[in-house]
Write a structure and sequence with these properties.
Layout lengths: L2 H4 L1 H9 L3 E8 L2 E8 L2 H15 L6 E7 L6 E4 L6 H9 L5 H7 L15 E4 L3
Parallel strand pairs: 2-3
Antiparallel strand pairs: 1-2, 4-5
């Protein structure tokens, strides 16, 4: 199995996330990948996928993933049925971090219990 085949799910995720300036090369049994993710959250998704395939410290892949926007953790578009608590749980693993998301979006949110589909929320770096 080639390294590219082994890490195909990582490459597919990169395409799905629309990683910019991306490239992939295989040299001496090591897959080299690089590109630019939109946010730190997307960079983390790529690394999580690499570790899921290759283990905690894979030696058969080298990845250089840069981040285009370090000012936020992510930008989230609200889907029907979501709450700030659900969004906080997704990004931080803690429902109570909804307060941080609410504070970061106080320019567009006036009530933490009132968010609307298609609103773009800043998910702050914590």
């Amino acid at each position: 199995m080639t390294m590219k085949a082994k890490y195909q799910s990582v490459l597919d995720l990169g395409q799905e996330l629309n990683i910019q300036n991306g490239d992939v090369q295989e040299e001496n049994g090591v897959l080299k990948v690089w590109g630019t993710a939109k946010t730190p959250y997307e960079k983390n998704l790529i690394w999580d996928k690499i570790k899921a395939v290759g283990g905690e410290n894979p030696s058969d892949i080298m990845a250089d993933i840069k981040v285009a926007d370090e000012s936020v953790f992510h930008r989230h578009v609200v889907k029907p049925g979501e709450t700030l608590g659900k969004i906080a749980k997704h990004y931080y693993g803690d429902v109570m971090k909804y307060k941080n998301i609410f504070a970061a979006n106080s320019d567009i949110l006036k009530n933490p219990d009132l968010i609307h589909p298609d609103q773009e929320l800043i998910i702050p770096n914590l």
